[in-house]
Each structure stands twice: as C-alpha cells, then as structure tokens.
Design goal:
By secondary structure, the protein is mainly α. The protein has one domain: Arp2/3 complex 21 kDa subunit ARPC3, CATH 1.10.1760. Helix content is 78%, strand content 0%. The protein has 6 helices and no strands. It is globular. The relative contact order is 0.15.
C-alpha cells in the first residue's frame, strides 16, 4: 500500500473514531458508576490493529483522544483518562492479535482490550484522587468491560470481514 493511500485511510479512520467518540459522549448509560461507556471508537482501533498494526493503532488512539478532548469539551482530565485506557488497551490488543490470533477471536481480544481500558482509567483515577477507594468500582467496570468488549469485538469482526471483501486493504 502506498504511503499516500495509507495516510488517507488512517485519516478517515481517525475521523470515524472521533465521530463515534463524540456520539458516544451523548449517550447516557443508566449505571451508577462513572466511566461506564460503550467504547464505540474501539471498533476502529481493532480494525486498525488488524489492517495496519500497533504503531498506527496507537496513533489513531492518541489523535482521537486529543481531538475528542478538544471538540468534545472534556478538557485535559478527559484526555488523561481516555488516553491511559486507550493506550493500555491498544497495547494489550495488539500483543494478543500479533501473538495469539490463532488462539483468540477478535471478540476475545476486544474483551481483553475493554477490561484493560477500564483498568487504565481506574489507575488514572487513583493517581489523581490519591485514593485507592476508587477501586471499589473495579467489579462493575470488569463486567461492563466484558459486555461492551463483546459488542465491540462482534461489530469489529463484522467490519473486518466486510472490508476483506472490498479488497481495499
């Protein structure tokens, strides 16, 4: 793939991830625990891991976090939470995809990513609040990570299979 085509595709994927993040910020999940989100932008992260790899996925995640903080009005605190979870989950999903794609489905990889995303955000909360009591949210975040990770993985798998048919990548 030419570098121009790759740059254009990554730009489009960053745009899609940004739109999904902003749309997700409008959706209120009726759970009394802060930080429970759908993780829609992670669909794009999984697709980028499959078609491009870790470095490109990390770029998409960091740029998305910066732009979402800017356009979504979340500010720098939102950036730190989002980036910590996004970077950690991208690392774990990339490792699992690269070393264990024969052992793990995209859905399983996505669940692992969602769980580590929540753990990354929880670590940032502990750091900023300087209180381990925040860890009381961990069980709910682990369950929500499994549920949302399954959904993201399922949709990612559908998207990856659809993209294979286009021969675009």
């Amino acid at each position: 793939m030419s570098s121009v085509k790759k740059t254009v595709l990554l730009g489009l994927l960053i745009s899609q991830a940004l739109v999904l993040s902003i749309i997700e910020s409008w959706i209120q999940i009726p759970v009394p625990v802060p930080g429970v989100k759908l993780g829609l932008a992670n669909i794009i992260t999984v697709v980028v891991i499959v078609y491009f790899g870790f470095r490109e996925a990390l770029t998409v995640v960091v740029v998305r976090c910066v732009l979402t903080s800017f356009f979504g009005g979340g500010g720098w605190m939102f950036f730190f939470f989002s980036a910590a979870g996004g970077i950690l989950s991208t690392m774990i999903m990339s490792i699992l995809y690269k070393t264990g794609r024969n052992k793990f489905s995209l859905t399983g990889i996505s669940i692992a990513g969602a769980i580590t995303h929540n753990i990354g955000q929880l670590l940032v909360a502990v750091f900023f609040m300087r209180d381990l009591a925040v860890a009381v949210y961990l069980p709910v975040l682990l369950v929500s990570g499994c549920i949302m990770g399954f959904f993201v993985g399922f949709v990612s798998n559908l998207l990856v299979n659809a993209l294979k048919k286009t021969k675009m990548y």
